[in-house]
Every structure is written in C-alpha cells, then in structure tokens.
Design goal:
Number of strands of chain B: 4
Low-confidence stretches of chain B: none
Largest interface: A-B, 47 and 82 residues
Mean pLDDT of chain B: 92
Order of helices and strands of chain A: EEEHEEEEEHEEHEEE
Radius of gyration of chain A: 17 Å
Strand order of the largest sheet of chain A: 2-1-10-9
Distance between the termini of chain B: 20 Å
Order of helices and strands of chain B: HEHEHEEHHHHHH
Strand content of chain A: 35-45%
Mean pLDDT of chain A: 95
Largest sheet of chain A: 4 strands, mixed
Oligomer: heterodimer
Radius of gyration of chain B: 18 Å
Structural class of chain A: alpha+beta
Chain lengths: 129, 218
C-alpha cells in the first residue's frame, strides 16, 4: 500500500514498484482518466510514456512529473507527495479569485471559505508557536 | 485577538476567518482558541494549506476578500511590528516608547479594516492587487512538497526522517518563517523563539521580519 498526499486529500491505495497503480486508482487520486490517447481530464489529453504503462498499471509519479508538478517520496517509497507546480499556483492567484479551501474547526466540523461569498472576509493566520 | 474587531463590525456584512497554521495538530491551538472564546471561524490547518495557496511566509498574515470572492489586498502582516526585535532579552521587556508604537500600529491596522468594511476604503484595484501578489517560484513549490512530507512523517512518529525533508524545505524557501519555525527548537514557553530564532532574526539585518503594510499609520 502507498500513502499519497495531494492538495485535495490523502489516499491509501495499493501500489507496486514506486507508484504504479491501477487506472481506476490513478483516476481516483489524480482526477485524470486513462483513455487510448493518454491520460485525460475534461478536453485535455496527455500521452503516457511507453514505460509508464506495464502489466495494466500506470506510473502515477512519472505522469505527475510529466505535468510539471513536484513529486517526492519517503526513503521506503511508501509515502508520496503529488505537489502542485509553481505555475499552476501562481495562475490560481493571478485572477485574484480567492483560492478556496475547506478546513475543520476544533470540533472537526468542516468550513468552506466560498460559503462566505456575499460577505467581506478578513482571512488571517496565526499559530501557537 | 480579533474578537474586538468582530464585535465592532457585527452589524456589517463581514466575516473573520482565523486559520491556525499548526503542523503538530489541532491540540496545539485548542487552549488559545478556547480561552479566546470567539464568535468567528477558527480553523485548523495542519498541512499549512492556506499558507501554500496564498503564498504566505509568516504569521500573522492576512488577506482581504470582497463580497464577490476577489482578493482586494494580498497577504500582508496583520498589525504586528518589528519593535520586539529591540526588546531586552534578559527581562523580555520593550521600552515604553516601543510598546506605545506597537500598540498604535495595531490600532491603526484595526481601523483600516473597519474603514474597508464600512466604506470600501483601502481595497486595491485589480492592477494594484496583482502587483502585490507573492511570487511563487519552482523552489517554493518544491519546498512545500518537502514540508508536506516532513510534517506527515513527523505526525506518524518518524521524526528522524522528517527532519531531512523539513530542512530541505527551509533551504528551498528560506524566506518562509512558517516552514522554518516548524522544525526549530521551542523555548520554555512553547515558542520557536530560542537562540536559533534570534540569530536568524539578527541575520535579517535591516530587512523586516514583519514587513509593514502599505496602510495609513505604518
């Protein structure tokens, strides 16, 4: 099993030899779907390198690097971070639309920033350290 | 800290969202939140997701968002000042003059927020807001990936392995105190403000730790 950390959640899925996963798991984790033309999301398809497919598995780490995103793993190759490229993050800010997020309060109740649409919002950070 | 602001604006169409950047978990923030007894949202961000999304490098940093969900002031320091850098470390005290200046800055900041909420003043137009957006480099994106892995490993009891990723994150993104202070030694009061912190602060020289916002009174 591999633990995969993304900006939209954490996933525990069966994986072998690095981050080779089934097409269904690749889709669940990444939102990209395997099609004859490659990995596809919405209208966009990105061809998969020949060595990124073997025994019905997809090398999700290699695919994520192809998209230009940072990829990291622990020494054992059992915990992975599929990061978000600087370009994508800067692009999300450039339109000035406040990037949305959902975070829990102390009781574990989730709150979504965009639910406050219609109000002025003062978003502030702090820490105990 | 923000309850006074919230109370004074409770008849306005306004919300405060306070996000605790707590890589060690919600329990670190609990005593502070319970003691503050607030009416606004107090959220826990163990992955420092908000800092990454908005390009924040320290706390407290804040963003002003209008009714349409648009950023009208990108991240800036929320009323804190650098006066503490001149404090007497033996007695942990600031001069009366510095204490007064620090309080005046906080008051000016609160007033600027109130002005914005009530009149729209201080909201930047799109070009000015874009010019103040933080730059996100490939090094920062990689630093955040290292940080994410480091704090996950630490939360799962793998401190030794975590330390390498946290150190690499700080090396890639040296401007981030948010990242650095997660790996720093804590002093007797639980703050990452031991000798290493003061040395790193001193190394800033004339550069600010809390960069003053471009608002009246700063």
């Amino acid at each position: 099993m591999a633990e995969i950390l993304t900006d939209w959640g954490e996933f525990t899925i069966p994986a072998a030899e690095g981050l080779r996963v089934s097409p269904a798991d690749a889709e669940r984790v990444s939102g990209w779907t395997l099609k004859p033309e490659g990995m596809c999301r919405d209208e966009l398809c990105v061809p998969l390198a020949a060595n990124s497919r073997r025994d019905g598995k997809i090398d999700l780490a290699a695919f994520w690097r192809t998209l230009g995103h940072p990829v990291l793993s622990d020494q054992a190759g059992s915990v992975w971070v599929l990061g978000t490229a600087a370009e994508s993050r800067a692009g999300a800010l450039a339109g000035l639309q406040a990037p949305d997020f959902t975070l829990p309060d102390l009781a574990g109740l989730p709150h979504r920033l965009s639910d406050l649409r219609g109000k002025k919002v003062f978003l502030t950070t702090w820490a105990s350290w | 800290m923000w309850q006074e602001l919230s109370d004074s604006l409770k008849t306005e169409n306004f919300a405060i969202v306070a996000v605790a950047e707590e890589s060690l978990g919600a329990e670190q923030a609990r005593p502070w939140i319970e003691q503050a007894n607030t009416t606004y949202w107090n959220l826990i961000d163990v992955d420092h997701r908000v800092a990454a999304l908005y390009g924040m490098v320290n706390v407290p940093q804040c963003v002003w968002i209008d009714e349409a969900g648009r950023i009208v002031r990108p991240p800036e320091v929320a009323g804190s000042t650098d006066h503490f850098r001149r404090m007497d470390l033996a007695t942990r005290t600031m001069t009366a003059e510095d204490q007064a200046a620090r309080l005046a800055a906080r008051t000016a900041y609160m007033q600027a927020v109130r002005d914005w909420v009530r009149t729209g003043r201080h909201a930047l137009d799109a070009d000015a807001a874009k010019a103040k957006l933080p730059r996100i480099s490939p090094e920062i994106a990689l630093a955040d990936a290292n940080f994410r892995l480091g704090i996950w490993l630490r939360r799962h009891g793998r401190e030794a392995e975590a330390a390498g990723f946290l150190a690499e994150a700080s090396r890639l993104h040296p401007a981030s105190w948010n990242i650095w202070r997660q790996a720093a030694e804590k002093n007797e009061t639980g703050l990452a403000a031991g000798p290493e912190f003061w040395a790193r602060l001193q190394a800033l020289g004339d550069r600010p730790y809390y960069e003053p916002p471009d608002l009246p009174g700063f």
